[in-house]
Amino acid sequence: MPLSAGDKLGPYEILAPLGAGGMGEVYRARDPRLNRDVAIKQLKGNHSARFDQEAHAIAALNHPHICQIYDVGRDYLVLEYVEGSPIQGPMHEADAVRAASQIAAALEAAHAKGILHRDLKPGNILMTTAGAKLLDFGLAKLVSDDEATLTIGVSGTPLYMSPEQAEGKSLDARSDVFSFGAVLYELLSGRRAFDSLAAVLRDEPRPLEASSGLQKIVWRCLRKSPADRFTSMTELKTALDQIAAKPVTEHQPSIAVLPFANMSGDKEQEYFSDGLAEEIINALVKVPGLKVIARTSAFAFKGQNTDIRKIAETLGVTTVLEGSVRRSGNRIRVTAQLITAADGSHLWSERYDREMSDVFAVQDEISAAISGALQVKLSPAAAAKPRYTPKLPAYEALLKAKHFHWKVTVESMEQAKEFYEQAIALDPNYALAHALYADYLFGRTTLAMTPLREAAPIARALAQRALQLDPALPEAHSILGILAADFDFNWKEVDSELALATANDSASPHCHFVCGLSLLGAGRRAEAVSQMEQAIQGDPLQTTTRVFLGACLGAVGRDAEAEQHFRQAMHLDPNFFWSYVYLAELYVGRGMFAEALPIAGRAFDLSPWYAPSIGLYAGLLVRKGEAGRGKELAQKLGSGEAYGASMGWALFHICCNEIDLAADWYEKAIEERDSLVPSTLQTAIGEPVRANSRWPKLAALMNLPSESASQKV
Fold this sequence. Notes:
It contains 32 helices and 15 strands. A hairpin with a 2-residue loop joins strand 1 (8-9) and strand 2. The protein has a six-stranded antiparallel β-sheet, with helices on one face. Strands 10, 11, 12, 13, 14 and 15 form a six-stranded mixed β-sheet that branches. It is globular. It is an alpha+beta fold. It has five domains: 8-80, Phosphorylase Kinase, domain 1; 85-245, Transferase(Phosphotransferase), domain 1; 254-387, Rossmann fold (3-Layer(aba) Sandwich), CATH 3.40.50.10610; 400-507, Serine Threonine Protein Phosphatase 5, Tetratricopeptide repeat (Alpha Horseshoe), CATH 1.25.40.10; 510-713, Alpha Horseshoe (Serine Threonine Protein Phosphatase 5, Tetratricopeptide repeat).
């Protein structure tokens, strides 16, 4: 029966009810013997001998961030009374790290005594003037395991349970690590990581806006498998302390150049305003120590009228450049302003009224002004190198080519081809036009638009010509590197070209992406992860890069992080089919066929023409027991003559657990030089093939050591 003010419980005088506390009612009370206020939790029913034993163990804990137990009664606990309010997000990152470190220290002390919390949630953490204070410590362990699971479930905290706790399995310290991750996610975002118990078991939280180091900590805590989490609270606290130790003043200067507004009154001139912004991005990339966000991410906000501060927060930059372009005949007017993200104030602004032929000088002047405002400058080597000035019509043709290339539709890709060729014809000495056309041709092969055997010789000749014109051009070296990987299987040349592609500060995020793809094909998975991470730092909203970062992470066994990146890509573009293809492949590689089926179905819906989508979905339907439907769908792949069909059949047979047949088709795909075969064989879905007796032969066909099959890093 609930108690009221004035009632007594043992020697304690009840002052006021404080509410329900999971395993009972909580009251503020007075201890007349010591003349102090205490909190009393009256339990539901009498306790056992085990209760006494474990209560004494918890009482032995003496930590400034743990609410103390003072006494044990017949059906109640006497606890330290704490003045404070329940912790809640969103909190500033520094405050969240500070509170999280205090909570981790409390859990570390308890785990050292062999005590788990088992009910970690924001409601059990109070923020006081002295910092975070952890309540209800160990109460879930004071009863039998079965009772604990039942009690917690009734109290409404399954949303913070670890998957193994929700499934009634045995627990260790890593269960508290998972719950800690859910709490930290909420402190940073202001929302729960999971909205149902099913989500705890199956889903990843929505993307988290936080520093990359802190994101890594949260995602590692929230991995579904205990083996993938931090091994102890000590290890977790060390990681948090490293984040907290970074001086606030050591922020790298950073900038996002937004697409310039087209003020010409002619929508057809949009390519020019976009191109001008992109050329400024390319110039700023050459400034050492300046973080420059790539075109894809910076242009993601085009036409959205998003607040500058929100854009800067999303892209992780301190400054934003915005501007406009008005073109009339041979005259242009360019306005530009550099804005501080923190308060929206203007650091610099200027207007340029020039002849069209002066557009390159305007780009240089804007870049120099930004460098001056941010107190950074070009490296001596970059400053000394004269800039090639292309013929104006060729420059405009290249802008149009890139404009259509970025749309990535069948029609736009054909238009891009026309303008790339036009740019080269108008200025045969335009090195960048040659290199970007080579990159475009390789990109067509990954989308099964052109066979690699057909595209590779042309792309190689273009890249080589680009290097004759500009021997240090990173874009040319990176495309020669990926051709050496996917077409020649010449791994020594891959090393040489990739070293040149990333040798200077002007290597773009796309160069790092291509390097990562090449290294993945070589079986050098940890190096591939590093390159992809560098690419995503400079281009955080690029869905293709994020998908392949996920594939690389899955290849080294970091499955939870991999899935997170796939789902972030889906969030960025729900219709980008590669996100679903590669997540389904990760699930298949881990034997999670039921989870893979709806994801593969979505991939097929979005790309019914794409052989891997067909093969995955058809094979998973067969695996589910719908053999007729699955085999009928697989016939869309034909007899394997079409480019990419061999890969589709290989994936089909992996899903059906017919690994020898999958190896047959992979062998055919290698002979055909399917551009995605080397990298796919190194990811999660390739593991059954790499473990098969046929792998040494496949590895030899690609000049790879067969022992790379078992390498995780």
